[in-house]
Design a protein that fits this description.
α2 crosses α3. The longest helix has 25 residues. The protein is α/β, with parallel strands linked by helices and 208 residues long. Helix content is 49%, strand content 14%. The protein has a domain of 135 residues: Rossmann fold, CATH 3.40.50.
Length: 208
């Protein structure tokens, strides 16, 4: 079963996609991870990707799909694969459709207010530790529990960047969802409840 997870930034689709992949023993491929890998390696494409992401914009279709194909080649997807972060627009869906048959699309819905809370509350440390001021705060405000360094707000978690990401998502999402609705593979999920409740709804609708 080839499954795609779709949802606004902060909707929890990455978390839920990993849970489904683990439950079905399928490879999990997130374009965000592919991007971060290139950024950490400081490759030429990684530097371009970082500039785009920091501005709150989406990486171009050709770059994203090329990285995705490279990522897929590292796994055995004969039994299926779980994709997070691709496709993000109609053009990407059409490109993917020629490469891989998608069986189910999990569409996680979340209010914009909740998105601002979830993403805007994230804090990061240079040691790699991550926190959330509401859901997972450090013991001492704005100080890392692990290395005692001051936490910072990533550029892509700043308010203006979040708003840009939401607007881009809304612009691209409807044609993308229409494409998959016509194929009858969309499963709509309410992303507002607790993580476990969202997971249960997804499992139930997937028949797991």
């Amino acid at each position: 079963m080839n499954i795609v997870f779709i949802g606004m930034p902060g909707s929890g689709k990455g978390t839920q996609a990993q849970k489904v992949a683990q439950k079905l023993s399928l490879p999990f491929i997130a374009t965000g991870d592919l991007f971060r890998s290139q950024i950490e390696k400081q490759t030429e494409i990684g530097q371009k990707v970082k500039q785009i992401i920091d501005a709150g914009n989406l990486v171009s279709d050709d770059i994203t799909f090329e990285l995705l194909k490279q990522g897929i080649q590292d796994f055995d997807i004969s039994r299926g694969v779980v994709l997070d972060g691709f496709p993000r627009n109609l053009n990407q869906a059409i490109i993917l459709d020629e490469y891989l048959k998608i069986d189910k699309v999990i569409n996680i819905n979340l209010s914009e207010t909740e998105i601002m809370v979830r993403i805007g509350g994230r804090r990061t440390c240079i040691c790699g530790a991550t926190y959330h001021i509401k859901f997972n705060p450090p013991k001492v405000e704005n100080i890392c529990d692990i290395c005692s360094k001051e936490l910072f707000l990533r550029d892509d978690a700043k308010e203006e960047s979040i708003k840009t990401r939401i607007e881009i998502y809304k612009k691209n999402a409807q044609p993308l969802l229409d494409f998959y609705r016509q194929k009858g593979v969309i499963i709509d999920i309410d992303g507002d409840p607790a993580i476990d409740d969202v997971e249960n709804e997804i499992n139930q609708k997937l028949g797991l």
